[in-house]
Write a structure and sequence with these properties.
Elements lengths: L10 H15 L7 E2 L4 H15 L2 E2 L4 H6 L5 E7 L4 E7 L4 E8 L10 E8 L2 E7 L5 E7 L4 E7 L6 E7 L1 E2 L8 E11 L6 E9 L4 E6 L2 E2 L6 E2 L11 E7 L6 E4 L16 E8 L2 E11 L5 E9 L4 E2 L2 H4 L1 E6 L2 E2 L4 E7 L7 E4 L5 E6 L1 E8 L2 E6 L4 E5 L8 E5 L4 E5 L5 E6 L2
Parallel strand pairs: 1-22
Antiparallel strand pairs: 2-11, 3-4, 3-10, 4-5, 5-6, 6-7, 7-8, 8-9, 9-10, 10-24, 12-13, 12-21, 13-14, 14-17, 15-16, 17-18, 18-19, 19-20, 20-21, 23-25, 23-33, 25-26, 26-27, 27-30, 28-29, 30-31, 31-32, 32-33
Length: 420
């Protein structure tokens, strides 16, 4: 999908520009609000999002029950490596299977495997393995039906991070609005990774107007520059639609703007929709051949969260974080209040020390004393500053109250899901 993106840059520099640009252009929309403070509030906010999207719980399809007899639960997952998979569960027989929806790597469906379930309040962790070497571990927030974790399918050399959803929609009207996005892509051999950040607008008919490194202007006719040192690229167009054979929401080229649409080579990318408590999220798999005849793949995430501020006190807790391609299960992260400015929330990953997390703020990349220079941004933005020498701050945003995505310095994305 992002074969037209050419720019590679530190996301933190764009983030402060986006904050200023959105304030100037009125980006986002619905006025200021504050993330809910209780579990029931998160659940009701997520249900309100689902209702607005005409989204419903994913029911196992015939292909799912053919793969796993008696399947009664399904989640769609987008892998950071660029594939889309469906996790199907039979919670009565304690079995699972994973059906490959799209793949850039020639992967196949799993055979049924043994399922382990652990419940911790509003969070359910599912894990399992098969005799063929498939394995997975994901955590679901039952309030929002969103998930994150990692999956290894037979034939993969390492696990891939996944984000997913237990709901789906084919209605385009409810998806309309302004979004902030991140994408990360790489050659299918894992080399040449890069990530891009920007904004996009979805029209009620599913037309997508996208501005890499810029802000969609008020008339949705072009991209506004947000920094003299980081001019916006030209607007690129795409189209959300429903694939008739599969019934899946897909992203493809826009025929009304042939000279400035994505070069999809006649194919479409699968779209996963999340109905989080902070607003809708679009997750799109990516698989294309670039102008040098190199196959690339990755993931694209867009969150409509400009009008929702995160409450820092609500974010304290334990998280499980995974990278795009990992050789170990991941790392547990504790976010705790330590006082000080901006909440002073510290992050201890149990491995490389302690850093600071700032909410609803971004950085211009400069360091003032022991902390980055911060600017307010009422849009679910998160800044994570490590204590590793000369390590740049990482910019991210919330997909819901329990799932975050961060850019990292390697041109990829990291995902953190709450575990309590």
């Amino acid at each position: 999908m992002t074969n037209n993106f050419t720019v590679q840059f530190a996301g933190r520099m764009l983030a402060v520009a986006l904050a200023a640009g959105l304030a100037a252009c009125g980006g986002g929309g619905g006025g200021s609000s504050t993330a809910t403070t209780s579990s029931s509030g998160v659940a009701s906010a997520s249900q309100a999002t689902a209702t607005a999207l005409s989204a419903s719980t994913i029911a196992p399809a015939a292909a799912d029950t053919s793969l796993l007899a008696g399947a009664n639960t399904a989640y769609d997952m987008t892998a950071a490596m660029g594939d889309s998979w469906r996790l199907v569960l039979n919670t009565n027989s304690h079995q699972f299977a994973i059906r490959v929806l799209t793949t850039a790597y020639g992967l196949s469906n799993t055979i049924p495997g043994t399922l382990t379930t652990t419940t911790n309040g509003n969070f359910i962790t599912y894990s399992g393995s098969t005799s063929n070497g498939d394995s997975f571990k994901i955590t679901v927030d039952t309030r929002t039906s969103t998930l994150s974790g990692s999956v290894t399918l037979a034939g993969m050399t390492a696990a891939s991070a996944v984000v997913g959803s237990g709901v789906a929609t084919t209605a385009l009207t409810g998806l309309a609005g302004d979004y902030v996005f991140m994408n990360a892509a790489h050659n299918t051999d894992g080399s040449s990774a890069n990530s891009t950040m920007g904004t996009l607008h979805v029209e009620t008919n599913g037309l997508v107007e996208l501005c890499p490194t810029g802000v969609v202007n008020a008339g949705h006719t072009g991209c506004s520059n947000v920094s003299s040192s980081l001019p916006a690229e030209a607007m690129v167009y795409g189209q959300l639609s429903v694939d008739a054979p599969s019934g899946h929401l897909v992203f493809g080229a826009d025929s009304t703007h042939p000279s400035s649409t994505f070069n999809m080579n006649g194919r479409t990318d699968l779209v996963q929709v999340q109905a989080g408590d902070l607003g809708p999220v679009l997750v799109i798999d990516q698989d294309w051949v670039n102008s040098s005849s190199v196959r690339r793949a990755g993931v694209f995430l867009a969150a409509r969260t400009f009008d929702t501020a995160l409450v820092p006190a609500n974010q304290a807790g334990s998280y499980f974080c995974v990278g795009p391609t990992i050789s170990q299960p991941g790392v547990s992260v504790a976010v705790t209040s330590s006082g000080g400015s901006n909440g002073g929330y510290s992050v201890n990953n149990g491995n490389s020390g302690v850093g600071n997390m700032y909410f609803n703020q971004v950085s211009d990349g400069t360091i003032n004393g022991s902390a980055p220079t911060l600017f307010p941004f009422n849009g679910g933005m998160v800044l994570y500053e490590t204590d590793i020498s000369n390590a740049p701050p990482r910019v991210g945003f919330a997909l819901s109250s329990s799932v975050f995505v961060f850019q990292n310095s390697a041109g990829s994305l990291n995902y953190c899901v709450r575990s309590n």
